[in-house]
Amino acid sequence: DAKTTQPPSMDCAEGRAANLPCNHSTISGNEYVYWYRQIHSQGPQYIIHGLKNNETNEMASLIITEDRKSSTLILPHATLRDTAVYYCIVRVAMGYGNKLVFGAGTILRVKS
Amino acid sequence: SAVISQKPSRDICQRGTSLTIQCQVDSQVTMMFWYRQQPGQSLTLIATANQGSEATYESGFVIDKFPISRPNLTFSTLTVSNMSPEDSSIYLCSVVAGANTGELFFGEGSRLTVL
Q1: In a 3-state reduction of DSSP, which class is residue B87?
Q2: Percentages helix, strand, coil for chain B, rounded to the nearest 5?
Q3: 3-state class of A81 per DSSP?
Q4: Which of A56, A66, B60, B72 is placed for a possible disulfide with A61 were both Cys, Cβ 3.0 to 4.6 Å?
Q5: Would you say B11 and B17 are in contact if contact means Cβ atoms under 8 Å apart?
Q6: Nearest CB to B104: which of A42, A46, A104?
Q7: Do A96 and B30 touch (CB under 8 A)?
């Protein structure tokens, strides 16, 4: 079963920051938070992941609360091409055999 | 990273028939994962394909309905057997391509429509 809770949908104005929340209150100490997104008719795309420190890459930033029970994915300057379903997933990262269980995700609509 | 190719990309099938989906990876990987995505839904894990051993199926999925082969470290097949319209879905192959990050790479999927 998915171990995360996300809002079903969100809207964001083009050029503004998109902040996507995720609750994972039952996360274990060795579980990482992963974010993927799926643009219509494409396979899911990795965005970012983290354990307990905040992370940033060329696509997004990941803010994890100190108790690790929730996190926020930030797209700093959303564009129309960022319209997609965003999935927050928790899993044990290390090794090749750790499966990802997807929840319902958040539909992000970026509007001009 | 990993580049994953799936065949067919889409197909229209008749009820009661079976279809085999192929997944080819451009590098050797230990495990491959097969997902199903029904229309308007999230991804559901079907099974984990292990090289040299039987696939591990998730609850609700059985080998008779979704037999999987994994003959080597770069290739796997998923067969959808005795199809019904409820099997109309996108089927996606995925692999973990980096042990240090656990990043999962996905193919573009195979869109099946069962009439």
Answers
A1: helix
A2: 5, 50, 45
A3: helix
A4: A56
A5: no
A6: A46
A7: yes
State how far the Cα of A29 lies from the Cα of B109, in Å rounded to an integer: 33
Indicate yes or no: CB of A49 within 8 angstroms of CB of B102: yes
Say which residues have a Cβ less than 8 Å from residue B44's Cβ, sequence separation at least 6: A102, B35, B36, B37, B38, B58
Q: Given this model, what pLDDT does residue A94 score?
A: 46
Beta carbons of B104 and B48 less than 8 angstroms apart: no
Which percentage of chain A shows pLDDT scores above 70? 92
User: Chain A: residue nearest B51 by CA?
Assistant: A97
pLDDT per residue as tens digits for the range B92-102: 999 987 666 67
A72-111 pLDDT tens trace: 999 999 999 999 999 999 886 545 557 788 889 999 999 9
Chain A residues with CB under 8 Å of B38 CB are: none
Q: Which residue in the set A95, A97, A105 is minimally distant from B48, CB to CB?
A: A97
**Which residues in chain A have Cβ-Cβ distances shorter than 8 Å to B108?**
42-43
Chain B hits for A3, Cβ within 8 Å:
none
Instruction: For chains A and B, count residue pairs whose Cβ atoms are closer than 8 Å.
Output: 64
